[in-house]
Each structure stands twice: as structure tokens, then as C-alpha cells.
Specification:
31% helix, 391 residues, 8 helices, 19 strands, 8-stranded antiparallel beta sheet, alpha+beta, globular
């Protein structure tokens, strides 16, 4: 009897030792459930805790950080179209509703002949996205035509002893998402056999209004004061084409000069060699402007036009006055301070500062004055293989 009791007591004493690994695993699982990082579609994660985001992690998903929403699209044209629709279908639907609610039904069919003017590779991407969204591709084309980015862009070249250090400041009033949070999406796009580039704006759109590619080429689109019905390629798709195929200003100009453009716009282009040019495109002419000294200003007021809109002309003159009195060397924060408040109706619009040589983008999120705005830096200096977020 005592022998049996002793044996059972020994077995009971061994039970906690046997169960210890199991209990540790259970506690670990509970801790993971309670403290784990929320999924991408739930509450946003803390970018400060994860400052480096390898770009391959972004493939096929969104990262909705508190600082700035991110996405990564890569692969063939069909893959780009599928991924864009899968990630941003609801945004596309909202954008379509917003744009076409006050337009005649079927107006997009008026633009069917314009499809022939879109590069075939980009058109393939749009067609795949349209098919997935059960929409005619002409509707996506019309969406690009009705995109009207307004604001201003400033190129500032300030060469240091060790080399060029140009900056491009951008303030556009129509690049935030239709989701209502007034944030632009930073979408890294890596097409097969083309330059990778980052587009700052509405991710459901195939075209680009502001972006930088892996060669440090920056292109910004500013919609002009004149409307035209002449057939041509939507200018957002021209900017997209420039970022995909051009490394320097010369090759960008060749692309622009070779196309029939729809609309009246200014495109400001800068490269990593401290060079910049503003291309003004109207139904009558294409003209270019070079920097004067270390500055080049661009807005919806056309220098080549004799009668710009009063609001655009006021914005241009305000910028000109501010920047002419600025020091030769400007950092991103100072440049943003000069830009803040110069563009009418822009309190909810983000401001961007590109550093072409360093492959960096500073995003000043809405918050009133530059002093109260939240700043996010996207560091793409490692060949666009990772995005480093700094706040």
C-alpha cells in the first residue's frame, strides 16, 4: 500500500515538469493574440517601431501606417492591373462615382478613339484593371482626363561643395485619397523591364501627378487654365510614361515632344544632376523654361499665356516673391515653410519635397501651418529595395 502511494506521489510531482513546455507555449500564444500587430485592414501599425519596410513585403498588400499609407505593385502589366484592382477596388468605385455623378451617362465612349494614343503596355494594365472591375476601359481613360491637379511646384538648386543637392517642393490640392482622410498614397510601382518609381497621389488611378523614379528623376503635373477637346494622351499617363522610361531630362523631353497631349498643363521635371525644366503645353504650342539662378517656379499660371486665371496668377506671384528672397541653400523644412499657404484652398492638401540625388521624399501631412504639420520621410536610397520611414 505504501509502495503504491509513494509511486503515485512521484508521478504527481512529475506532472508539472511534463506540462511546463505546454504551459509556456499556451502563455506565448495568449500573449501573441493580445499584443500582436493588427492586420493591414485594421488599426494602423506604428511606423516608428518598424522604420524599415523591405519592398518585397509590400507586394500584394497595403500597409496603412498612421504616418502614410503604402503599397507596392510589381510584375507584368496584367499583374499590375490585377493588383491595383484587388487593393484599391473600393477607392476606384468611389472615384468613379465622384467623377461621373454630374456627367451625362455614357460620356466615356466619346473618348474611345483616344485609346489608340495610350502606350500599349499601359493600356494593357488599364484593360486588366477595368476587366476585373467590370468596367469599360474607356471609363478608366476618362477618369484620367478628368483628373485636375492644381497647385504649384518649385525647383531649388543649391549645389554644395561635395556635389548637387537639388530639391523639388510640390503642393497639389487634388492628390489625396477619396477615403476622406486627406492622405496621399505612396505607391511603389515596379513594372517589368522599366524604371521603378513612387507615385504620390490616388492609388486607384493608373496615371501619375507627382512621382520620382529610381534614377532620381522627378516629374510633377500641374493642370492648366485652358480646356481643350483635342484628342490626345491624358497627361497623367504622359507623366507615368516619363517616370517609367526616362533617366534624365533629355530623354523625358523626347517622350513629351513625341506625343499628342490632351489638355493644357505644365510638367515640371528635375533630375539627379541638379537640372530642371518646366514644359508648358497648350493647344497652340509647347514651350520650355529653365531655372533662373537656382530657382524654377511652376503653377497653374502659365508664363507663356497672356491671361492666366487670377487665383493661379496670385499664387505664382506669391511664390515668386517668397523664393526670390530666400537663401541659396534650402533644406526640406525651410522649403516647405515657404510653400505653405501660397496655394489657395490647400489647407487639407499634403505638401511634398523631393530630393532627387538622395532618393528621398518628404511628405508634410495636413495640419495647418508647416510648424504644426506632421512630417514623414521616405528614404528610397537603397535602389528602391526598401522604404525607410522616418517621422
Amino acid at each position: 500500500m505504501n509502495g503504491h502511494t509513494t509511486e503515485k506521489t512521484s508521478e504527481l510531482r512529475q506532472i508539472p515538469v511534463v506540462l511546463l513546455p505546454f504551459l509556456i507555449a499556451v502563455l506565448g500564444l495568449v500573449a501573441w493574440i493580445v499584443f500582436r500587430t493588427p492586420p493591414n485592414d485594421a488599426a494602423p501599425h506604428d511606423d516608428a517601431a518598424q522604420p524599415t519596410v523591405p519592398t518585397e513585403v509590400l507586394g500584394g498588400e497595403r500597409l496603412n501606417g498612421r504616418a502614410l499609407p503604402l503599397a507596392h505593385l510589381y510584375g507584368s502589366r496584367e499583374a499590375l492591373g490585377r493588383a491595383r484592382q484587388a487593393l484599391f477596388g473600393p477607392l476606384l468605385e468611389a472615384s468613379i462615382t465622384q467623377t461621373f455623378s454630374l456627367l451625362p451617362d455614357g460620356i466615356e465612349e466619346n473618348f474611345r478613339p483616344w485609346l489608340a494614343l495610350v502606350p500599349t503596355d499601359i493600356l494593357s494594365e488599364m484593360a486588366e484593371m477595368a476587366s476585373r472591375a467590370n468596367l469599360p476601359v474607356t471609363k478608366l481613360l476618362a477618369l484620367e482626363l478628368f483628373d485636375h491637379p492644381r497647385g504649384a511646384a518649385v525647383f531649388c538648386a543649391a549645389s554644395r561643395a561635395q556635389g548637387p543637392s537639388s530639391l523639388v517642393a510640390v503642393h497639389l490640392t487634388d492628390i489625396a485619397s477619396t477615403s476622406g482622410n486627406h492622405l496621399p498614397f505612396a505607391t511603389l510601382i515596379r513594372p517589368d523591364q522599366r524604371h521603378a518609381f513612387v507615385s504620390l497621389g490616388r492609388p486607384e488611378r493608373t496615371g501619375v501627378v507627382a512621382g520620382m523614379n529610381d534614377s532620381g528623376l522627378v516629374a510633377v503635373l500641374l493642370d492648366g487654365p485652358i480646356e481643350t477637346d483635342d484628342a490626345g494622351r491624358p497627361m497623367t499617363l504622359v507623366v507615368r510614361d516619363v517616370l517609367e522610361r526616362a533617366s534624365v531630362i533629355d530623354s523625358a523631353l523626347q517622350i513629351i515632344e513625341s506625343i499628342a497631349a490632351a489638355g493644357t498643363v505644365t510638367i515640371l521635371i528635375a533630375d539627379s544632376a541638379d537640372r530642371a525644366i518646366a514644359v508648358e503645353i497648350t493647344p497652340r504650342l509647347k514651350s520650355t523654361r529653365q531655372p533662373q539662378g537656382h530657382l524654377l517656379l511652376a503653377s497653374n499660371a502659365f508664363v507663356a499665356e497672356t491671361s492666366p486665371s487670377p487665383a493661379a496668377d496670385t499664387a505664382y506671384r506669391t511664390l515668386d516673391t517668397r523664393f526670390r528672397g530666400a537663401p541659396d541653400h534650402l533644406d526640406a523644412k525651410t522649403l516647405d515653410t515657404l510653400l505653405a499657404g501660397a496655394v489657395p484652398d490647400s489647407s487639407d492638401a499634403p505638401r511634398l519635397v523631393f530630393e532627387p540625388l538622395q532618393r528621398k521624399i518628404h511628405v508634410f501631412l495636413p495640419g495647418g501651418s508647416s510648424a504644426s504639420a506632421r512630417q514623414v520621410e521616405l528614404d528610397l536610397s537603397k535602389d528602391f529595395k526598401e522604404i525607410r520611414l522616418k517621422r
